Amino acid sequence: MPRFQRPTGTHDILPEEQPYWEYVTEFAVRLARRAGFERIDVPIFEATELFARGIGATTDVVEKEMYTFTDKGGESLTLRPEFTAGVVRAYIENGMHVRPQPVKLYSVGPVFRYDRPQAGRFRQFHQFNMEILGEMDPLADLEVMLLIWDLYAGLGFRDLSFQLNSTGCPRCRPGYVQVLKEYYEKHIGEICEDCRRRLARNPLRVLDCKADVCQPVIAAAPPITDHLCDECADHFARLRGYLDLLGRPYTLNHRLVRGLDYYTKTVFEVWAAGIGAQAAVCGGGRYDGLAEALGGPPTPGVGVAAGIERIIMVMKAQELEVPPLPAPAVFLAHLGDRARREAVRLADELRRAGVAVWTAFGDRGLKSQMREADKRGARYVVILGEDELARGAAAVRDMAASEQAEIPMEELVPWLRQRVGA
What we know:
422 residues; alpha+beta
């Protein structure tokens, strides 16, 4: 028989990894709820056209990275490559524009991109996502930026800073695109083949190129911030003023355009020190035209997404420890058929009373069961044997203190509840 292996670009999240996952996601959710965000879960797959129209048909995500399939009804569906398009679709479809605005939403779950697997980058990965819909104020931009900053700072990431840019709006961006094309046409022989193609189809993408040959051309390219309309310039200036007020370090980065077409005005990344060549740990920005592009009413929005796998990878590399998951409070050891039946009854009663219990399986001796209880980190071992049951009692061993006491059966559940805090 062949041995099956997980698909390329995926990974198994084993039990020993779960303390990191629970710690990170619980901390992220706690931050979001504290700021008034509500959870929304959207389907893992959506109509392909949703992402093509929302993200941009000429982006690398849509052209190269989406997992698209035709279902049995002949409809083209795609595993979500990001959350925002689906969240905005849900906002429109469920009439959330009639709620008090803005609407703050967060999501946690898997996303899928056919990408080249490498450290911290998978084809199925998980994101923590936050969106503020229905608000144009740059304070909304600031809020998602500060919350994601607090996530990384609270997890122990060091020397955080923002990379910041504005991509303008449909009024001022076309003028800049023309200036950018004219500049690049003077250097057409100095750029890669991909950038020559992007220049015709999606000019802003040339600023995001990673090819070494293109870096000098990108470095000298005219910055979009010199070509913003008054509204975009004011929005950007106010956001920078808030960051200055709070002392959050940022660098103006004219090449920062992100990889998705829906961004308008603010785009940003969070960078951290000491994590290797890829200093960016997350990114986001404003997408004021996305709802209209998806057939909804005009709805400004801003959001951010953080990759959970990358967070955990960096935490391990920096030896940032997390609390272990709780061990079972009580281990039930039993000797004989009558004792086993009593262990079954007692386990059920203790669990309904809120006490975490592990019951020994099989017909093993007491020494073997005690070794298992020690390995599982149990605080107390309840020993049920024929002699104890004949006296209407159970022996309870405190594993930390190496002490043992005999407790009457009618007192056992409240006695254990009091000591384990259930």
